[in-house]
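This section describes the prediction task in plain terms. A model, or a person checking by hand, is given the sequence of a single protein chain and must write out its three-dimensional structure as a string of C-alpha cells. No templates, partner chains or ligands are provided. The sample shown here is typical of the held-out split.
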Amino acid sequence: MATIYEVAALAGVSPATVSRFFNGTTVSPEKQRAVREAAAKLAFTPNKTARRLRKQSSEVVALLIPDIENPFFTALARGVEDRAQEAGFSVVLCNTDDDPGKELRYLQIAASEQMAGVILAPASDEADLGAIASLGSPVVAVDRTTPYPVDAVKVDNRAAGIAATTALFDAGHRRIACIAGPVGIEATEDRFLGWRQVMTARRAAMPDGFLQHANFRADGGHAAMQRLLALPEPPDAVLTTNNLMGVGALQAVVEAGADPARFGLAVVGELPFLFLTPRSVVQVRLPARHLGTTAASMLLERIGGDTQPPRTVVLRAELAR
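The expected answer:
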C-alpha cells in the first residue's frame, strides 16, 4: 500500500501538503492537481492517514535529549531535523538534563500542544509516556529504550563496550577499570557489561572499585578517575562509557602526572576536544547522525499511518582506526 511520503515524492510536494489536501485545508490548485494525480497513480487510500491527521493540529515534532552540549546529541539532533525538514515538519528541541521530572514536563507540553509526535532519549528506564500515549501520538525512543511498546533505534552498546575493552587488551593493558554513567541507563549498562564480558573471558582481575559510576559529563569522569587513581593498586587503563566522561578522565590522568600516552584510555564515543587526544586513545565511533535520521524516519512513518507492531532498529558502532 502506498504511503503519504510516496505520494508526496511523486507529486513533488511535502508530506504536510498531502495531509492538508486530504484534510480539506487550502492548497494551491497546482498542488491539488499534482497530489490528486500522484494519489491516483499509486492507488493511495487516505482514510487511515486522514483520521490520524485530523486529530492533530500541528506539523511540529518534539525532540527530547539529555544534553545538547554533548556533541553526540548535537549530531543526533541534526539528523532528526534534516529528515523532519525534508518532510515539511519542524522540530522543537528540549534539553532534559537527564532529569525525569523535567522530561515529564516536556512530554506534557508536547501532549497539550498536540504535537505530531515525539522522539526522546529517555532520562531513565521509567520514562512516563502516559500523557502523550493517551492521545495516540507516536513516540520513538532513541539511544535508549522505554518499557512502553514504542519504536526504538539504538546502538549495539554491548558490542561497543567489548570492542573498546578488547582494544585495550590488544595494546598490552591488563588492569582495566570502567567509568560508567548513572545506574539505570540502559546504554551505559550495556557498555559496562561488554567491559565485564571481556574481563571475565580474559580472566583479568576486577578488584573492588574498578567499576565507577558517574554523571555523563566531564566533571563526572574527572571525579571517578581521581577515585580510581587513589586506589592502592590503581588501573593501568580505563574505559569510559561516553565521550565527555573520557575528557574528564584524561584531565585527571594528566593532573596526576601520569603519561597519557602510556596510560590506556578507551572511550565509547569520540573525544570532542582534539587538543587533549593522544594517539593512544581508543575511540568507538557512534553513528549519532544516523540514529537521528532513522528515528525521524520511523516517527514520520507512524504519523503517516503506519500501524505495524513496534520495532527496534539496532545500529553498529565502529572502532576508530
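For orientation: The first helix runs from residue 4 to 11.
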